[in-house]
Design brief:
Elements lengths: L16 H15 L3 H28 L1 H8 L9 H16 L4 H28 L6 H4 L6 H16 L7 H32 L13 H18 L5 H5 L1 H32 L11 H21 L6 H30 L4
Length: 345
């Protein structure tokens, strides 16, 4: 490897996006009855999760300066929210695929702690730092991973609530608060992103893959809403709010659906019209995750609304998610092989 380069020091804070993407695609497969596929990705994801934690801890210890700089960087700091979302997605896999909610409970509490530390550390540092970038330079779709993190906590909490027995109402209330808070956070951040897109010049390099999180944040908000609706019979407050929950959840799904054609067109403009090179970047996992999440949330929405025609969407959309995951995985393998072949200084 060439002198002066350290892959560990350069590890992206958003690396856990591959855990998010792999986990949700496996859950999508499970919901479609692809059990062998789902289990294969489940075990792969556990390995990825463990390896990335080791690398993250090593980076924080050996390259503390770079790690601290990332926490206060407007573009890179939001990548740390993938740790929260990745943790809760693994918890979802343990519930949906492995049927081990007792282990998922530990990950949920861990995810809550990670969310609290990450959320308030990053937004505090970005608020008080003396020198800040302009809006055009400092915000991108990756900021919405903060919303994904909150909704991932809400989703896992809703799935686990029936297993808390006497304390299930507390778990459901916490999940409801996280869901609504995440929705409000989307409104705040999305307003800035949409303003940046439409009133500032946009180059192909500005449309990095995380802009798909514009859709993914609404997709996981939809999923969290369906989980709360599914728990309405377990708590009187949710039963009273059922019409509100259904309406807001359908709003989230409609917003996610609205984004898809525009994001596809922007991708064509970026790579087809402006000829921006299409090569592997860890940020592409941030585009795979929304595709898998849209598949899962639409499946769950069709179930809670009891409207079979909606099942057509996940029946075919899952193939798009799987192909995107496979292509990105191939890109990762190619990148790793390329680095192994680099000469050692």
């Amino acid at each position: 490897m060439s002198a002066g380069r350290s892959p560990l020091a350069d590890l992206s804070p958003a690396s856990f996006a591959m855990v998010m993407a792999t986990g949700i695609v496996s859950i999508a497969g499970e919901l479609r009855g692809w059990h062998a596929f789902a289990w294969s990705l489940f075990w792969l994801n556990l390995a990825l999760y463990a390896v990335l934690w080791v690398l993250t801890v090593l980076r924080a210890a050996r390259h503390a300066g770079r790690f601290r700089d990332d926490l206060a960087d407007h573009n890179r700091s939001v990548g740390f929210f993938t740790v929260v979302a990745g943790t809760c997605i693994v918890g979802n896999q343990l519930v949906v695929i492995a049927e081990r909610p007792e282990i998922a409970v530990g990950l949920w509490f861990f995810g809550i702690a990670l969310w609290a530390v990450t959320n308030y550390t990053i937004f505090l540092l970005l608020t008080v730092k003396p020198e800040k970038p302009s809006l055009a330079q400092g915000i991108n779709g990756g900021w919405l991973v903060a919303v994904v993190a909150a909704q991932a906590v809400a989703t896992l909490g809703g799935l686990l609530a029936p297993h808390f027995h006497e304390a299930q109402e507390i778990a459901l209330f916490f999940s409801l608060v996280m869901w609504l808070g995440g929705a409000m956070l989307y409104i705040w951040i999305m307003g800035l992103i949409f303003y940046r897109y439409t009133f500032f010049p946009l180059s192909p390099s500005d449309l990095a893959p995380p802009y798909w999180i514009n859709m993914g944040a609404m997709a996981i908000s939809t999923l969290a809403g369906t989980v709360l609706i599914g728990n309405a019979d377990h708590w009187s407050l949710l039963a009273e709010l059922r019409p509100f929950l259904k309406g807001l959840t359908l709003l989230f799904w409609s917003t996610a659906t609205w984004w898809i054609p525009l994001l596809v067109l922007l991708g064509i403009w970026r790579h087809g019209v402006r000829r921006f090179p299409l090569r592997y970047d860890v940020l592409y996992w941030g585009a795979v995750f929304p595709l898998g999440m849209y598949t899962v949330c639409t499946q769950r929405l069709a179930d809670v609304l009891e409207w079979p025609p909606l099942q057509i969407v996940p029946r075919y959309f899952i193939y798009i998610a799987v192909v995107a995951w496979a292509l990105t995985t191939m890109g990762l393998i190619g990148r790793l092989v390329g680095r192994l072949r680099e000469p050692v200084a």
